[in-house]
Design a protein that fits this description.
Blueprint: E1 6-17, E2 20-32, E3 37-41, H1 48-56, E4 63-68, E5 71-75, E6 87-90, H2 102-106, H3 115-128, H4 144-156, E7 162-166, H5 174-191, E8 195-199, H6 202-208, E9 211-216, E10 219-224, H7 226-231, H8 236-241, E11 246-249, E12 260-263, E13 268-270, E14 276-286, E15 289-296, E16 301-306, E17 317-322, E18 326-330, E19 340-342
Parallel strand pairs: 3-8, 3-9, 6-7, 7-8
Antiparallel strand pairs: 1-2, 1-4, 4-5, 9-10, 11-12, 12-18, 13-17, 14-15, 14-17, 15-16, 18-19
Length: 344
């Protein structure tokens, strides 16, 4: 197949309110190749779940269009029924049928297949998610992680051309969440399933997705891989939302120019001869290193990774230097945001 599996072109979704329209998604675009895993990352209320609902056919598109495998399924004039789109969706609460065992839940969408074909597919899916020995278990007899696996097996069973995941790990504890994110990515890779998920957790986004779209107020601000979002954000919001760091004035770092600089914790290094002066405000232990919270002479707050054996006392004035060969800068003009300025 040529072209992307999923293509959104300038879609707009809104609701009629008091004689007007409240816009939820505004001129939103993205492209997802077949077999890739994409993610919409953003805070609650940014519109990311509405994107999934529009793709699935549960929300009407007021402008723009949505295409699956080259076929337009949504536009202001077109709306293919959800059940005809070849899409599976896994919800936050998994929505398993409590009166059906795991096997019956997985086979729910396979009613049109022969009994033999249906059983073969159910067995294949349960084996894929590591639950072949729990086919007869009911949802209340399964752990949260096992329920999620059953929900995934049910979503994959009809061989959808696109899988949508709505906050798939929100009901799980942190340790289970991290383990299952990696496991889920492996399963989706094995099945070559094109997938779009939404989450507010950047750790999940980084663990799962090939491409991530950072959303705010109904728009995708940047659509890129995790490394690019972290090292080369093109928007202040993206820079602040993704990873740790601070946006501070260039002059506070002894740099020329009237602009702001994105400073990550690994870009500052303690140095007794360093040109940057800062007071140590707090220290947090982070496994093999410490995270220092510092107040620059300008009053701006920054963080720095510190791997030394001896930790300075709170209140100590430190000297530091920049170790990055280049920094991302932001000016008052959005047109120049994201430019890389070489440091001396």
């Amino acid at each position: 197949m040529s072209g992307p599996m999923l293509q959104l072109d300038q879609i707009q979704v809104g609701y009629a309110v008091d004689g007007g329209v409240r816009t939820v998604l505004d001129a939103l675009s993205l492209s997802l190749p077949a077999g890739d895993i994409g993610c919409l990352l953003g805070a609650s209320g940014c519109g990311k779940t509405t994107v999934l609902r529009a793709i699935a056919g549960f929300e009407q598109v007021r402008a723009g269009q949505i295409a699956l495998a080259g076929q337009i399924v949504s536009s202001a004039q077109t709306c293919v029924a959800p059940e005809l789109r070849g899409i599976s969706m896994m919800f936050q609460d998994y929505a398993l049928f409590p009166h059906l065992d795991a096997a019956s839940n997985v086979g729910f969408g396979l009613a049109r297949q022969s009994r033999a074909a249906r059983k073969m597919r159910i067995d294949e899916m349960l084996t894929l998610v590591g639950l072949a020995d729990r086919a007869g278990a009911y949802p209340h007899e399964l752990s949260g992680g096992q329920q999620q696996r059953v929900a995934l097996a049910r979503a994959l069973a009809p061989r959808p051309q696109l899988l949508l995941l709505d906050e798939p790990f929100s009901n799980l504890d942190i340790d289970t969440r991290e383990h299952l994110a990696n496991e889920l990515r492996t399963i989706l890779r094995q099945t070559a399933t094109t997938t779009l998920l939404v989450t507010h957790d950047q750790t999940e986004a980084f663990a799962m997705a090939d491409t991530i779209g950072v959303m705010d107020q109904g728009r995708i601000l940047q659509w890129a891989d995790a490394r690019t979002l972290y090292r080369a954000p093109t928007d202040r919001y993206v820079a602040d939302f993704v990873g740790r760091g601070a946006i501070v004035s260039a002059t506070a770092l002894g740099l020329p120019g009237h602009h702001d600089v994105l400073l990550r914790p690994d870009q500052l290094l303690p140095d007794v001869a360093g040109p940057i002066h800062a007071d140590l405000i707090a220290v947090r232990f982070h496994g093999p290193h410490h995270l220092l919270r510092l107040r620059l002479i300008s009053g701006e707050m920054v963080e720095a990774d510190f791997s030394g054996a001896v930790i300075p006392e709170i209140g100590t004035r430190l000297r530091l230097r920049l170790i990055a060969p280049a920094l991302i800068t932001f000016s008052d003009s959005p047109a120049t945001d994201g430019l890389i300025k070489e440091t001396e």
